[in-house]
Amino acid sequence: MAERDPEAVRRFVERFASDMVEAGMPRMPSRAFAALIGSDTGHLTAAELSELLQASPAAISGAVRYLTHVHMVRREREPGSRRDHYVVDSDIWYETLLDRDRIVGRWQQSLREGIEAVGLDTPAGERLALTLAFFDFVGEEMEGFRARWRERKAELIAARRS
User: Fold this and answer.
1) Could you tell me which CATH class the domain 6-87 is placed in?
2) What angle, rounded to 10 degrees, do the helices at 57-69 and 46-53 form?
3) I need a labelling partner for 32 at 20 to 30 A (CA). Which of 96, 114, 137, 154 fits?
């Protein structure tokens, strides 16, 4: 296994976290997530995150609470240990898209109710109907997208093993 340059890893964590902040995610959860996804094991304790990110235990606690709430990491406890480990899976982006799919499903229901409330023949109803049609379209496309990703992932894994 190649040796890591800790400074290069630190720069990656901060750069990726900055990209996530720019997309709307809070800063400390972004940094914690970037540290987790950039670790070889994909799991770290709160103390390890605190040391790695030079952040207070309280900041780490809030960050991992946010990340578990939005299902980007999960908390595990190793047998015989009192320490929680925060884990990011290799399929995190796939799982995140599935979570977003469920959220969009709730939005679609609300949009249907909104169309009923404002009337389809109003400007607001037309706007809501187009929004609903967009989400319906995305949902239809997502199933094919997920199937293609599963195929591609299997190919990538097979290629790495050969």
Assistant:
1) mainly alpha
2) 120
3) 154
